[in-house]
Amino acid sequence: MRGQMMNFPLTIPSILEHAAANTPDQEIVSVEADGSRTRLNFADLALCAARAGRFMLDLGIAPGARVATLAWNTHRHLALYYAVPGIGAVCHTINPRLDPKTIVHIAAEAGDVALFFDADFLDLARALRDQVPSLRHFVLLGGADAHPVADWPDLLHFDDAVAVAPPLSAWPAVAEDQASGLCYTSGTTGNPKGVLYSHRSTVLHALVCGLPGNLNIRETDAVVPVVPMFHVNAWGLPYLCMLAGARLVLPRNRLDGASLAALFNEEGVTLSVGVPTIWLGLAEFMRASGTTLPRLERLMVGGAALSRNLIAHFEERHGIEILQGWGMTETSPVCTIGTLRPAEAALPQGEKAALKLRQGRPLYGVRLKIADGTEAPGLTPGELLVHGAWIASGYYNRDGSDFQSRWLATGDIAQIEPGNRLLLTDRAKDLIKSGGEWISSAWLEELAMQVDGVESAAAIAVPDATWGERPMLIVKTEVGAAVTDSAIVAHLSGSLAKWQVPRRIVFVDAFPLGATGKILKTELRRRHGASA
Ligand code: AMP
Hints:
alpha/beta, Rossmann fold, 9-stranded mixed beta sheet, 16 helices
């Protein structure tokens, strides 16, 4: 027998409508390029999004069209988070830290029709204009007075366009399973893959992440998404905070310890989320300056493993609760959160810290298992598989061969401990994660082997106190070839962003090989892995 409940599509505009109706006066604080802070409220944001929606429809942006952003965490980007899916288009957030060639590749593959960009990315926008034929509209996120661009006559300016566009009186109907967002995984060899979120997956992810046992976000919270809005929808916070009626404080790209501490204290921030590298920088600033953060209640760490020293600094020294989450671009991203259960919270600090170093327990809506294992906890590590309501079932524009079953293979090696707690132990994918951003080992190796005289190359991750990991390149040259490390670095720099280029290159006479003749990276890590 079918239930008799109404069908209420779980769509992104429904979050905006709810927020504007119920908490219209809740504040959004947005840091501008000059450090000043723009203040608006949820009603203003809803109006700005409705005007931006009209402006995009008038440009001819159709349902399903991909609209790209190259932007920091600001209120303008937030308006696009709602306006683009609101008109049925797909908000394609591009990571500006990738090298320009990869960005051009991503925009072309996505078939983006419009690009909204911060003034910082003007040169990149010009490169995209010249190299991506599908891109027809370019909109600078600011006003023409502050950002005149004399040599680009048909460039549009967001602030001026939304000031004159009449607001849409209602959002067009959109089905909950329609695509709302697109984000490329930056992890694979010069060949990033797009993950296409739906309205429904985005709403469910936000709803569950906000639950009391998870992030517990309330109207009394002031939340800073330090994680960039080009990284997996800033882990859903721009949607979750408006759904929960929480104050949203957007830091742009001012993420150094001093700027964050000032923002947190001046705006009474209670919760922030980001990668460990950011929190290490904040901890260092606090130690050096003696600054405390009396209003900050909790931090969530994800994207890379939480370390014991972060727990010691924030939780044990300053009483700021620290939570770890695990997820990926393909998983919206949050799949687990490490909230302690009441009995665990009563344990001695050392035992609590040990639990917090685990990646957490799966949220409602997500299942985890170890490859070839059962969903029941067991202590044998293997590849982690996930299934759930906000997990990708394929990649954008691909044939589906990456997804063979109803489980997504994550490339992470893990075990599921008693209590259903996830513990990551290794990584099967050949990638290096530095400061929360990926560097592909295979891509580094391929580029190194393009250098005359290089016979073979292997890239490994080596631990780094600040960045988590840094790449190291190990090279074997052809007999008699005189290859210098500066020649390799120069070649790599032509195709990689600066932060992706290894600081140190080690030359060897021979590589350790496994039974099948493959380079044994485990052995390389053992031999060279102590320092970058
Ligand atoms: P991305 O797709 O860029 O969000 O990266 C996802 C990957 O980051 C995961 O597959 C893991 O390898 C890594 N990762 C994410 N969260 C954690 C965590 N809490 N601990 C360790 N690694 C993590």
